[in-house]
Amino acid sequence: MTLDDTQAYRRLDREGxxxxxxxxxxxxxxxxxxxxxxxxxxxxxxxxxxxxxxxGGSAIGGDLAAxxxxxxxxxxxxxxxxxxxxxxxxxxxLVIASSYSGHTEETLSSAEEAWARGARVLxxxxxxxxxxxxxxxxxxxxxxxxxxxxxxxxxxxxFPLLAFLQRLGVARDRAPDVGEAIAEMERLAxxxxxxxxxxxxxxxxxxxxxxxxxxVTLGAQHLTSVARRWKCQIAENSKAWAFWEAxxxxxxxxxxxxxxxxxxxxxxxVVLLRGDAYSPRMARRSDLTAEALERAGIPHQVxxxxxxxxxxxxxxxxxxxxxxSYYLALLRGVDPTALPIIDWLKERMAEG
Length: 352
Ligand code: F6R
What we know:
With 352 residues, the protein is of the alpha/beta class. 48% of the residues lie in helices and 15% in strands. It has 13 helices and 9 strands. It has helices spanning 6-12, 17-22, 24-37, 60-72, 105-116, 128-137, 154-167, 175-192, 202-210, 224-238, 280-296, 310-331, 340-351, and strands at 49-54, 77-80, 93-99, 120-125, 140-143, 214-220, 242-247, 268-274, 300-304. Strands 2-1-3-4-5 form a 5-stranded parallel β-sheet, with helices on both faces. It is globular, with a radius of gyration of 20 Å. The site of fructose -6-phosphate has 15 residues, from loops. Fructose -6-phosphate is lined by residues 55-58, 99-101, 104, 107, 149-151, 236, 339, 342.
């Protein structure tokens, strides 16, 4: 198929994934505003540690917030993707249980463990068992109003965290960066949209270049978890193998798979995320990665994030990845929304 054939969109994207991706900038704004006025319990302010517990599309917002905190040099945020909680969680920890559906058993287990340890708990969810258990315990719930698959609710899994971090006094006021991030996403939106022809649409053009290959996304610093977001979106939307790597670590191992001697060089396409906010040493590492890929003749593309602030660069790179994963789904003839295997797994796990 060709990505400029609008009939194909209607045939394959029956549940409107494209419209949800298109809505991301507005969603980020709504989530941010809702979180600024959300009645955050006063006692959360004294928390010495912040742990976001969640899985998949409900965890990635925590990763992005953690990267931004690290990049800006503020209090660390850690993300827990598993049952239970790490040993360091105690009464001085704020555990934010993030589950779009409120039914994810790993996240429910983390919330139970947080209550058992006397930690401060906050939930971010549309409802489900998590909301009910919070109600029974008098725990605050930030309500997610978006209708769609959890991974499309990234605005609601990231921007409330940013608002809470500044309201808790562990981050600076990020309102200017939030404004810039949304403005930059809106500026790019038209050119990435299905109505923009492939010749002038970088997301369509990149999806065409990737074709049938597996994608490896490389990021660093504030773009580390953006690389992970690309992997998750390509796996879920495009039903295709994707992997992510982070610099500088990849320069100590994965880079050897990107050289002349790599045995499966034709099967992979490397996306190198680049942001002006990289430190000079990291920018040099990124340039050298591109040089190594070029020398080895491995298919790759540098994707440069837009905007000045780290957050704007993160969100523009996320938006590009979301659209690329969408176009890859269409090129491969799959419905970008349906998750038959994840649904099957959840059903089977619920049985036993
Ligand atoms: C589905 C998706 C998944 C879910 C994950 C956890 O769109 O992105 O990765 O996010 O299975 O489910 P929730 O988010 O409901 O806790």
